[in-house]
């Protein structure tokens, strides 16, 4: 399968690269189109997005929030960007699929079905926006 086009915000690119990600994720980051937060089209998985995806290997649909490692909480469906699922989904658009290696040695195909709560709809992740509190 051909690698899908990946879009990242500038803040996501810098933040995830600072984590010194594993080689597969680093390769994805390096080939991504990096844009300002306001330039991300609707339906793109960014950090702190709630996303529904389909695992074609298991036939299961799941809903998660993509977070930085310190905020990961599997009981609350918060998945780290350094986990295989999180790394695979970052930067994909609704409808895109990616084949991603898992620690077990298998490759799974994940498809983004819906971005339910994009961060841009809540607040500007760069810190210069406002949010209702």
Average pLDDT, to the nearest integer? 87
Helix content: 10-25%
According to CATH, the homologous superfamily is Transcription elongation factor, GreA/GreB, C-terminal domain
Give the CA-based shape: globular
Percentage of β-strand residues: 25-35%
Q: In the CATH hierarchy, what is the architecture at level 2?
A: Roll
Instruction: Enumerate the spans where pLDDT stays under 50 for 5 or more consecutive residues.
Output: 122-133
Tell me the number of structural domains. Answer: 1
Measured between the Cα atoms of the first and last residue, the distance is 44 Å
List the helices and strands and how they pair.
Blueprint: E1 7-9, H1 10-17, H2 23-31, E2 33-35, E3 50-55, E4 60-67, E5 78-80, H3 84-89, E6 97-101, E7 107-115, H4 119-122
Parallel strand pairs: 1-2, 4-5
Antiparallel strand pairs: 3-4, 3-7, 6-7
């Amino acid at each position: 399968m051909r690698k899908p086009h990946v879009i990242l915000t500038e803040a996501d690119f810098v933040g995830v690269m600072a984590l010194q990600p594993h080689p597969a994720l680093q390769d994805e980051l390096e080939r991504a189109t990096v844009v300002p937060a306001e330039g991300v089209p609707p339906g793109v998985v960014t950090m702190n997005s709630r996303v529904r995806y389909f695992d074609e290997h298991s036939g299961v649909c799941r809903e998660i929030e993509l977070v930085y490692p310190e905020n990961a909480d599997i009981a609350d469906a918060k998945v780290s960007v350094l986990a295989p699922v999180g790394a695979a989904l970052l930067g994909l658009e609704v409808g895109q699929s990616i084949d991603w290696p898992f620690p077990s040695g298998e490759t799974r195909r994940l498809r983004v079905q819906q971005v339910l709560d994009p961060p841009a709809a809540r607040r500007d992740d760069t810190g210069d926006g406002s949010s209702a509190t």
